[in-house]
Amino acid sequence: MENFHIIKVKYLGATETRGSRVKLESERFKQYILTDYDYNFANTYEIAENWLKANGFELLGKAEGKDCYYIISTTFKPLK
């Protein structure tokens, strides 16, 4: 069975001091990054997909969780 890198993607709503953000969390490396919500994209998944591709990740697929997305990648490197 093939092994993949799972990245959890979650929307974080605005607070009194910060705008909306997107959290990308590597299940393998137990680390995360936060990126600003970009309203040029249709949804949280597209923002995460764009960030990952721009940072050299090869993407294989996605899945939906209760309150998040999971992106399946064949790239095994930390987010930071």
Provide a descriptive summary of the structure in words:
By secondary structure, this protein is mostly beta strands. The chain contains 1 helix and 5 strands, in the order βββαββ. The chain has a 5-stranded antiparallel β-sheet, with helices on one face. A hairpin with an 8-residue loop joins β1 and β2. The relative contact order is 0.28. The model has no long low-confidence stretch (mean pLDDT 96).
**Over the alpha carbons, how many angstroms does the gyration radius reach?**
12 Å
Strand order of the biggest β-sheet: 3-2-1-5-4
Q: Helix and strand succession?
A: EEEHEE
Task: Provide the number of structural domains.
Answer: 1
Q: What is the rounded distance between the termini?
A: 28 Å
Estimate percent helicity: 10-25%
Which of globular, elongated, flat, extended, rod-shaped describes the shape? globular
What is the structural class? Answer: mainly beta
Classify the beta-strand content into a percent band: 35-45%
Uncertain residue ranges: none
Keywords:
mainly beta, 5-stranded antiparallel β-sheet, 1 helix
Summarize the structure in short:
14% of the residues lie in helices and 39% in strands. It has one helix and five strands; from the N terminus they run βββαββ. The protein has a five-stranded antiparallel beta sheet with strand order 3-2-1-5-4, covered by helices on one side.
List the helices and strands and how they pair.
Layout: E1 5-12, E2 21-26, E3 31-36, H1 44-54, E4 59-64, E5 69-73
Antiparallel strand pairs: 1-2, 1-5, 2-3, 4-5
